[in-house]
Amino acid sequence: MCGIIGYIGNKDITSILLNGLKRMEYRGYDSAGVAVVENGGISIRKKPGKLMELESAVEDVRFTGQIGIGHTRWATHGEPNERNAHPHTSFRRRIALIHNGIIENYSDIKKELEGKGYEFHTDTDTEALANLIEEFYSDGTSLEEAVRLALSQVQGTYGIAVVSPGEPDKIVCARQGSPIVIGIGDDENFVASDVMAILDHTKQVSYLDDGEMAILTRQDVEIKTIENERVDREVEEIAYDLERINKGGYDHFMLKEIMEQPQTVRDTMRGRLLPDEGTARLGGLAMDFESLLYARRILITACGTSWHAALIGEYLFEEFVRVPVEVEYASEFRYRDPVLDNDCAVIVISQSGETADTLAALREARRKGVKVFGICNVVGSTIARETDAGVYLHAGPEIGVASTKAFTSQVTLLTLITLLLARMRSMSFNKGAEIVRGLQQVPDKIEKILKAAGQIRDIAEQYHTASNFLYLGRGYNFPVALEGALKLKEISYIHAEGYPAAEMKHGPIALIDENMPVVVIATQDSSYEKIISNIEEVRARKGRVIAIATEGDEAIKERADHVIYVPQTLECLTPILTSIPLQLLAYYIAILRGCDVDQPRNLAKSVTVE
Ligand code: G6P
């Protein structure tokens, strides 16, 4: 979603701001802009559309200032045009502001300020905050104080950065519900909503917590609460390697991330498997482990792809840990007042660790006194910091908007948690050791599947003009069917539905004719016979079947129009393998349709508004 970058220092401001915005492109946006404080005023350029538009708009401008802010906007209030793009200036142009989040009481603020003669020129909620800061920014009040006073009247969420020609040596930023990270440099400092934006320049960062603000000068960073109490925040070193946020020779981040999966799944398991004990070790859970181990009920909550991983978690925990599990969309969980008591534990899953609904669900659960465990990829993210205990995926930065490697790592990690809990409850050593062996072989098996990319591309050639797709799976592969359909619709804009195969008879079967490709996950496991019957039902209605089957299953060739093989594995591990051909199928179909796979329309990598 929206991205914030701010810089104070003596390097070329234009390239720092534009490069920062470029690094955040993956988050999804529909307009962009920059503001530089110079010559006693504020110079601004903004453009709707892709960053290329903004780049052309600044081509002939030579910003001379040494302090500036930049923003990529994902529209919430007001259409994505130039007027509504950030940065926004206040009425008398005394300040410029960039903002992520939503100011809920903006219309009250606007009405009040209009009464005082302020004019508004945009449809955004942000402009109300810009003007409110200006209202407080009178003689004798500093910018910092004006921001503080304005924020005390604001309801909603924000991550902001504010500059003013009145104090041309300062960036004031603040956070409430929308991430802000400060990058510390040598005689220069940065602010961003995402570390990616500043990694080219510094790896030394400090994160703001909700209710905090920071005042950046070139030499100094001061962090305070919004109530003006000093905060001593440690400086952390980001471990990301810049190589990992480049495309590494691939055409798209998504393809690179699909191809990385043998390694990312290995990284998720690294140092965590104990083959001699048939179990796993997860230090991150240790702090509150008993609450998880003795939970009589587990609730898992997440959004999007992470929610699909959570569904696989339900199958794993119920089969092996023998604990009842419920999986709920975080957006429902947070408002539904779910039944939570001391006997239950909550697990939240989020690649980014910043999804607004998942974060709110986590806070709601903690408010009710329940221990919350996190599964995140982004180190230092808000969800990772606010959970009672948790584990990281270690899958490296995921840039493609459509999640791929994070999904397989989430499922891998859920399997490790299952092993750990089940072995301390009733799972035998033999069973545990069998799963450990199965996991150890998974990366090589993924490698083998990736070699079929050419075949999957050929299948995509035949179906990329279809208007609908159906995905069917049973058991562990039902969530994979949901995930396969989500991948396709996200990046190719083809309507796709995932269904538990047997449910097809209760509705989707009416859609099947010779124009409907049906992707069926038909690996040789406990529901193989049943899924074969489902394939026959599709064929009887002339549907075109693309089967994901177990290597060596020759019989299935007679029933399916196309077969993509995955190596044999334990049933509970099949999702880590079967999801991979579906990622590739979606990718190639989207490419053949000319879609922008890394930045699909309207989508955001991390949804930080509800
Ligand atoms: C967005 C992304 C999805 C992601 C979902 C949840 O919709 O486009 O790829 O699965 O958010 O994100 P999270 O970071 O919480 O896993």
Question: How does this model look, in words?
Answer:
By secondary structure, the chain is α/β, with parallel strands linked by helices. Helix content is 35%, strand content 22%. The protein contains 18 helices and 26 strands. The protein has an 8-stranded antiparallel beta sheet with strand order 3-2-4-1-10-9-11-14, covered by helices on one side. Strands 5-6-7-8-12-13 form a 6-stranded antiparallel beta sheet, covered by helices on one side. A 5-stranded parallel beta sheet has the order 18-17-19-20-21, sandwiched between helices. Strand 22 (468-473), helix 16 and strand 23 form a beta-alpha-beta unit. The longest helix has 22 residues, at 429-450. The chain is globular, with a radius of gyration of 25 Å. The model has no long low-confidence stretch (mean pLDDT 94). It binds 6-O-phosphono-alpha-D-glucopyranose. The site of 6-O-phosphono-alpha-D-glucopyranose (G6P) has 16 residues, from helix 9. 6-O-phosphono-alpha-D-glucopyranose is lined by residues 303-306, 350-352, 355, 358, 401-403, 603, 605-607.
Topology at a glance:
Blueprint: E1 3-8, H1 13-23, E2 31-38, E3 41-48, H2 51-59, E4 67-73, E5 88-89, E6 96-100, H3 106-115, H4 126-136, H5 143-151, E7 158-163, E8 171-176, E9 181-184, E10 189-192, E11 204-207, E12 212-216, E13 221-225, E14 236-237, H6 253-259, H7 261-269, E15 273-274, E16 279-280, H8 289-293, E17 297-302, H9 304-321, E18 325-329, H10 330-336, E19 344-350, H11 356-367, E20 372-376, H12 382-386, E21 389-392, H13 405-424, H14 429-450, H15 453-463, E22 468-473, H16 478-492, E23 495-500, E24 517-522, H17 528-540, E25 544-550, E26 562-566, H18 574-592
Parallel strand pairs: 17-18, 17-19, 19-20, 20-21, 22-23, 22-24, 24-25, 25-26
Antiparallel strand pairs: 1-4, 1-10, 2-3, 2-4, 5-6, 6-7, 7-8, 8-12, 9-10, 9-11, 11-14, 12-13, 15-16
The protein binds 6-O-phosphono-alpha-D-glucopyranose (G6P).
